[in-house]
Each structure stands twice: as C-alpha cells, then as structure tokens.
Amino acid sequence: MLEALIKILQIDASQLNYLYPMLMAPDLTAIATLNYDLSIETAAEQLGLSVSTGLDRWRGGYGWAWEPDADARLLKLHGSINYALHKARPLEGRMRTEHLVPTNGEVPAKPALVFGVNSKLRSDGPFLAMLIEFDRVLSETEWLVVVGYSFRDDHINAGITRWVNSDTARRLSIIDPNAETWTGRGYEASYVGSLIQATAGGGVEYGRHAEWPSLHLDVLPHTAADGLHALLP
Fold first, then answer.
1. What is the pLDDT of residues 78-134, one digit of tens each?
2. Are 50 and 44 spatial neighbours (Cβ–Cβ below 8 Å)?
3. pLDDT in tens, 148-179
4. In sequence order, what are the beta bridge partners of 72?
5. Which of 89, 151, 178, 195 is the most buried (most CB within 10 A)?
6. How far apart are CA 116 and CA 122, in angstroms?
7. Closest Cα partner for 197 from 222, 172, 223?
8. Which of 60, 127, 66 is nearest to 95 (CA)?
C-alpha cells in the first residue's frame, strides 16, 4: 500500500505553474498543506525560491524551527513522502522517541504520513508540533486562502475557528470547484455553513465584538489554477 501511495503521488513537474502566484504572493506568511507530495517544493525550485518545511529541524518537542533565510515556509500537516519516522537512540537522561529522517526516494517502513478515513490527528511524531505551529502562523495572518480543502478534518477546522474568532482575521477566501453544491441538504449544519454564518454576523455564538473588523468571505467556484490566478494575479 505504501509503495502504491508513493507511486500515485509522483508529480508532473511541467504542470505546476498554477502554484506560482501563491509562492510569489507578497507578504506570504506561510503555506499549510494536507497533501503528502512534493508539488510546492518542486514549483518553488522552478522559481528559484527556497522552501523550509521545518521537518529536518524538528527535535522531538513542541517547538517548530524554520530555516531563517528561506523564501517560503511550508507546513505539511499530514506529513510528507520524503520523510520517515524512526526511533532514535536516546542520549543519557532522555527517553527514546521518534525522529525524522529523509528517505532519499526509498519506501520507508514507517513513513511520516497520516492517512485514513477517520481522524487524522496523531500524537506521535511531529504532527502535534506542526498543529501548534499552524495556530501560531495563523495568529500572524490577516488573509487566509483555502484551496481544495473539504473541511472534514476536525483538528484543522478547530484551528480555522480559532483564527476566525481572533482579532487578526480580516479576509477568508475559499477556492473550490464544488462550492455551488454547498447550499444542498444539510448545508447549514456543515462547517462551511458555520463559516458563512460567522461572516454574516449576528447571533451569540458567531457574533463579533463591535470593535472587531468584519471578516470578509470570498467563495470562488473555480479550480485551484483559476482561483489562485483570480485572487493573486
């Protein structure tokens, strides 16, 4: 299964120019992805930009470190196909724990990936540390652009909710070619429905304090390529 997954996730480097507007956006805080592939890293390389994922700097705690001179920061919240988890031999006075090592194209016995149909929140490896960093990065963010996300991961939605309810949130843009189906049966009870209620204002649960600026919501029923080009020409 792992071999099949890694094979499926091989990318066509000639088809990545749609990511250029995102990587070249002014004042880019960071990119967070739930994908395992190397599309963003490859697109950045094509542009001559450096990307830091922080995976190679993680040392087992809750802290997250970035390459200080990187052009872009990339959080791969569900892992990456080019890293594996391995038990590290502990130093004196420290517990045995998992660390990340690059795979160099090999299929690892224990990949640094989170996949499945149920909850994708894991307590081992770097995943909780990345979630904490996700919240911290959002705290620096005024404009959040969401591309191709199903809003089905509760721990990711919780981070977005905290951001929406913060005093830094200014604009939320959602790019999804299926956006027009959101008004179907059960829509109001969905997470997207809750987001739309939040931006509409009113109510106790979703109301914002008068001194807070309103959160502007864009919903673009486009592909990632068309949506990113429209938002970030």
1. 888 888 877 766 666 666 667 777 777 665 666 767 765 555 666 666 888 999 999
2. yes
3. 898 888 889 999 999 998 889 999 999 999 88
4. 51
5. 195
6. 12
7. 172
8. 60
